[in-house]
Amino acid sequence: MFGNIPFVKVAGRGIKQVLGVKETKEKIEKEIDDLGLEKDGVEIDVDADGKVKVAGKASSQEAKEKILLAVGNIFGVAEVKDDVETEDETENSQLHTVVSGDTLWKIAKKYYGKGSRYPEIFEANRPMLSHPDKIYVGQVLRIPADNTETKTAMV
Questions:
Q1: CATH 3.30.1340.30 given to domain 4-85
Q2: Domain 94-143 grouped into CATH 3.10.350.10
Q3: What are the pLDDT digits (tens) for 97-155?
Q4: For the chain, what is the HEC assignment?
Q5: Entry pTM
Q6: pLDDT tens readout for residues 67-102
Q7: Domain residue spans in the chain?
């Protein structure tokens, strides 16, 4: 479990106007549906401060992480509280907040020691990412655990 995940409230996609709690929840649920993410068994609650609680049971660790990031990477969301369970014993991914100058290549080099592994990060963040070059400052990305047997020393 990640606990409380901070997000950059003024970065993100989707909701760009000030909405009430009910409308924000509806927009968040629509975003998850539009991305084709499986949200059966998962409940979303929104408060007036831009904090979202995601609870229930997800079909897998990957599905859980994608839902949490899809919710958090929406304009106006400041924090996501993770109360989602899975039966999946997969290790949590690391989370990376994109800063100015980041590319998926640089991020892959940081976490895996090889920039050429950027497609792994891109695929781990689909469908939220549509193209490897389309990331933005403040966006939070999933960085899957490095399960390769031979890890390259970081340069």
A1: yes
A2: yes
A3: 999 999 999 999 999 999 999 999 999 999 999 999 999 999 999 999 987 644 444 44
A4: CCCEEECCCCCCECCCCCCCHHHHHHHHHHHHHHCCCCCCCEEEEECCCCEEEEEEECCCHHHHHHHHHHHHCECCCCEEEEEEECCCCCCCCEEEECCCCCCHHHHHHHHHCCHHHHHHHHHHCCCCCCCCCCCCCCCEEEECCCCCCCCCCCC
A5: 0.84
A6: 999 999 988 888 999 999 998 878 889 999 999 999
A7: 4-85, 94-143
